[in-house]
Amino acid sequence: MPEEIIINAAAVYTPLQTIRRASIVVRDGVVTSLKSEWSSRIEALNLKNYVIAPGFIDTHIHGCCGHDTNSASTTDIRRMAEELVKHGVTAFAPTSVTADHETLLKIAKSVSAYMEEAEGEPLGAEVIGLHMEGPYINPEMRGAQNPEHIRKPSLEEFQEYVEASRGKLVIMDIAPEIEGALQLISYASSLGVHVGLGHTNATYEEAVRGIVAGASRATHIFNAMRRFHHRDPGITVACLQNPHVYIEVIADLIHLASPTLRLVVDYAGTSRTMLITDAISATGLPDGTYSLGGLRVTVKEGIARLDNGVLAGSTLTMDRAVRNVVSLGYSLRDALTMASLTPARSLGLEGMGCLRPGCRGDIVVLDEMLGVRGVFVRGINMYEDY
Ligand SMILES: [Zn+2]
56-346: which CATH architecture? Predict the structure, then answer.
């Protein structure tokens, strides 16, 4: 018997299109029908006061609820998957921070081991692969990355990460101006690893060279990047102006002041701007002292900082990021696009981040306050609070 769900909703966001009084059918994990009329079938799930959208995709997240990608444990990744789904996330890329070679190899192995374990039996949000933030970054722009382990790019080391991850390394953040970076960017890109430009002091010209070499993402734009100056525009302008570059934004309204966030969205558009959380293990936990890549982090009023005051990731969740964007005056459609379709496209994830026939049945159910009330991953009910 094929597994089938039918949902009647106030509206379905594809997300580019809004279908009112809609019914959607998911069979064997795939959307098979989307109509602008409610289904009268007896088995239909009536969520007529709620809207439905593609599940959120977080491509940059270190941890949450006391669990951390850097612990290199499949249990931690499982706990993240179980927790994130409650925030509407149906797919995510566990993200490492700079660490020694052995630790990074272990992390790569743990992510691929978890993905094999969870294959065909999702227990929450699905892992789409490993995102490595560092270690090939500029120490001057280290932000909250541990300086002890920042190093020059090495093709041999990188190859070991790819092998340890069994090809599941999907994103690596690199500073393009450091020695050996361009060669590594080209090599990584040729293997299908998406390169983000991050923790970098690159000038405009250096950033353009990185993009020409294959980089396709800007890692949490404006954060841990050379500052904009009108006679030295630097990497931020290079990334914003290049149509091949997807732009990560941490929409917690702390990492980017609201006018700056608006500037990015208005300039790069919703088809290139994507919401990330950059969340750390303290997310979902009370204020206190935590650790990130061996550095002490203090969380006060939800803001995570190192002892020297530098921001150290966030405690943001994707549902809150969507609400924040809407609070700035953007349409729900725009906010949802930046939370699902654009991150999927940034990684070439066909059939993800959208709700049309043929796409995956990854669904988030939202109430009128944009609170998460239900989540389906490949058509399987993973969370509900109706
Ligand atoms: Zn990060």
Answer: Alpha-Beta Barrel (3.20)
